[in-house]
Structures are given as structure tokens and as C-alpha cells.
Design brief:
300 residues; 11 helices; globular; alpha/beta
């Protein structure tokens, strides 16, 4: 489990996860490549929350037997020069050149791209000449807490939660001052959790889960370019095996209940259709372990 760890323990957790991926995915991609109908999409995307997860994941995959030349890891531009002087084994790719994967990097041998969620969730198209996705699967490596890693999201969340506590009255200036104080208290509550999801309040958790849903939709969209079916996988055990009230299924159930109580579901259905109601909110339904790899909308 990656979530809830830090420092050396977090690096070890990423490496252990990499070993699991390295044992599971090669056979999957080989099977996809062997079928002429799907051979074009025999590639995998792994999206952690931070750059430093990439080398640790790659290390575990290599330990499990994946060829280092098949693993492409996104790096920040300022790190590329040192990696060129001391090659890491796996193939580094500039984070602003991810569209080069898979054919224009690593002599065309790469099958796995590891890149931070923030770099791949929007605007990245890994497609063939016909516009079809090249990705068999896109993996959310660990549970992102966007309020901690994305200042605009943090600002939006604090303002939204504060606005819910508004008290309309005859003195708007006084009310604005009160809301400023409330916003400061909400901000302090979020930061006091030291980045651990389980320490956040219920309102903040549900707001974070709603943000995660939008990111999952964007990530899953990487696999569906050109109308192909795609697979979205949640890797970290913390998604389903943490404290009962902090698992993703439990929080999605709470979020769906909240949206239903506030009569938001008709609009959500109209905008997202089956993507939200079946593919993502469907995670609230109990399922056997082999179904934790959720199918993406019209997936297989």
C-alpha cells in the first residue's frame, strides 16, 4: 500500500507495486499484441501522483523481469542532463514530450509509460495514424489528493466549502468577513492533516473524491481515443483495503447519496451518461477481487 507512507517506506511500496505490475502485465500485453485486431494497442500507461514514483516503479518492474528498454519514465527537463550522463537503464522521456511514446523514443521498443497524473490526464493523445488509442490499459497508481498537490484546486475547494456556509443578510460586508474567517479555518483543517487522506474531514474527503472522479474520466479517456474500448485500473490497495469509511467504494457511495439528495444526478447523467453512473459510480457495488480492474464504459 502506497497511500499513507512516506520517505523510504513510500519508495519501497512503489518498488513492490512495480514488481506486481511486472509479473502481471507482460502476459497481458503479449496477448493483446498477438491479436491483429488489438495489436496496435499493446501498451500500458501508469500514472502516479509524483515524478519520484517513476524510477521506483521501474526498478520493481525490472526486478520482476521486464526489460529496462521497455520502460519509459517521464522526467522533468532539469533532470535530463544528469540522466544522459549516467543512464538509469530505463528510458527517460521529457515530461513535455510524452507524445513521442511509444514509437519515437527508446528506438521504438518501449511498452510502458510511467508519467505523473497531472501530465497525462488532459491533452495527451497516444494514438496511431488513424487516431486510435495505443493504450490497452491506463493505471491510476495511487490515490491523488489534489488539494495537496494543486494550489488552484485547493483554492477552489476552500472557497466552495466556505460558500456552502453562507448566511445571506442585510450586511454583505460583514458576511464576507465572516466567510473569510471560515475559509481560513477550512484551509487550516486541510493542512493540519499533513497530506493524509484519512485525516481529512468528511466534506473535504467527498470534495476530493469528486475531483478524483474528474481525473479518472480524463485518464480513462486516454484509452478510448478513436472509439476503442479501454481499461482503467486502480493499483494501490488503499483504494479498497484501507479504513472502511475511506475506501473509494464507500466514499463514492456517500458522494452518490449526497448528489441524489441534492437532486444533481439528472444533470450528471445528462452530461456524463454511462461514464459516470456505470463505469465509475459502479465501483460502489461489491465485487470479487478479480473485478477490481474496472472496465471503462464500453470496455471489454
Amino acid at each position: 500500500m502506497v497511500s499513507g507512507t512516506d520517505g523510504v517506506n513510500r519508495e519501497r511500496a512503489y518498488t513492490a507495486m512495480g514488481r506486481s505490475v511486472g509479473k502481471d502485465y507482460p502476459a497481458q500485453l503479449d496477448a493483446v499484441a498477438a491479436d491483429p485486431a488489438t495489436a496496435h494497442r499493446a501498451y500500458a500507461l501508469l500514472a502516479p501522483t509524483a515524478y519520484d514514483a517513476g524510477p521506483a516503479l521501474a526498478r520493481g518492474m525490472i526486478e520482476a523481469g521486464v526489460a529496462a528498454s521497455e520502460i519509459c519514465v517521464a522526467v522533468q527537463p532539469q533532470k535530463m542532463a544528469s540522466l544522459e550522463r549516467m543512464p538509469p537503464g530505463w528510458v527517460p522521456i521529457l515530461s513535455n514530450r510524452l507524445e513521442q511514446f511509444p514509437h519515437a523514443v527508446g528506438h521504438g521498443r518501449c511498452r510502458y509509460l510511467i508519467a505523473p497524473m497531472a501530465r497525462v490526464e488532459r491533452g495527451l493523445n497516444i494514438v496511431d495514424r488513424d487516431g486510435r488509442s495505443l493504450l490497452h490499459v491506463a493505471c491510476l497508481v495511487n490515490r491523488p489528493i489534489p488539494v495537496m498537490e494543486d494550489p488552484p484546486v485547493l483554492l477552489s475547494l476552500v472557497n466552495s466549502l466556505a460558500y456552502r456556509r453562507r448566511r445571506p443578510g442585510p450586511e454583505p460586508a460583514a458576511e464576507l468577513e465572516r466567510l473569510r474567517i471560515v475559509a481560513g479555518q477550512i484551509f487550516d483543517d486541510i493542512r493540519s492533516g499533513q497530506g493524509y487522506f484519512k485525516s481529512l474531514g468528511e466534506d473535504v474527503k467527498l470534495a476530493v473524491v469528486a475531483e478524483i472522479l474528474t481525473r479518472l474520466i480524463q485518464l480513462g479517456g486516454r484509452t478510448r481515443r478513436g472509439g476503442d474500448p479501454g481499461r482503467l485500473r486502480l493499483l494501490d490497495a488503499a483504494f479498497t483495503q484501507t479504513a472502511a469509511d475511506s475506501t473509494l467504494p464507500a466514499l463514492l457511495e456517500q458522494l452518490r447519496g449526497k448528489w441524489q439528495a441534492e437532486d444533481h444526478m439528472p444533470l450528471i447523467d445528462a452530461v456524463y451518461r454511462t461514464t459516470m453512473t456505470e463505469a465509475l459510480l459502479g465501483l460502489t457495488e461489491p465485487s470479487p477481487p478479480d473485478m477490481r480492474k474496472r472496465r471503462w464504459a464500453n470496455g471489454e
